[in-house]
Specification:
Length: about 160
């Protein structure tokens, strides 16, 4: 079959439409994933509840399953963020190639000049007296998460005792 050979603007338009189509497909896939996650909760809920169950028990199980799914989603999001940060660090750490064709004598002079410049500027270091409690810290966040979980379980136990 013959290929259409129109103006270049038509080719640009076609490329733009292809990008839009790809974007729509990716959004559709994201929505499908959300629906699948909800269906996952419903399926596990069906497996947990067999026979006649009180409405309160049903709602309790449902909430627990939803909380569990949200935690898993948060963990996967954290892992993705960590991977992205690692990739960025690797890119920053990559050594850049130098195509300097000058003699070694010039390099020694450059190094001497750089060392003098570095001696003139005092490097700023970290101040150990500064309060960093507001900054994100994995260990602190992990401890806080464990404490929250412990308090949640304690609260649930007390609720059961009250009933």
């Amino acid at each position: 079959m013959a290929e259409y050979k129109g103006a270049s603007s038509e080719g640009q338009r076609q490329a733009m439409l292809e990008k839009q189509r790809a974007k729509m497909l990716s959004e559709f896939e994201k929505q499908r994933e959300k629906i699948a996650k909800y269906d996952d909760v419903e399926d596990s809920l069906k497996k947990e509840t067999i026979g006649l169950v009180k409405l309160e028990d049903f709602q309790k199980i449902r909430k627990e399953l939803q909380v569990q799914k949200e935690r898993e989603a948060a963990r996967t999001a954290e892992l993705k963020d960590d991977k992205i940060k690692k990739k960025r660090k690797k890119k920053e750490e990559k050594v850049k190639l130098s195509f300097n064709l000058e003699d070694a004598d010039h390099e020694e002079e450059d190094n001497a000049i750089k060392s003098e410049a570095s001696k003139k500027k005092p490097k700023l270091g970290k101040n150990p007296n500064v309060d960093t409690s507001f900054l994100p810290d994995r260990d602190r966040e992990e401890e806080e998460r464990k404490e929250r979980e412990q308090l949640r379980l304690e609260w649930l136990r007390k609720q059961e005792e009250i009933k």
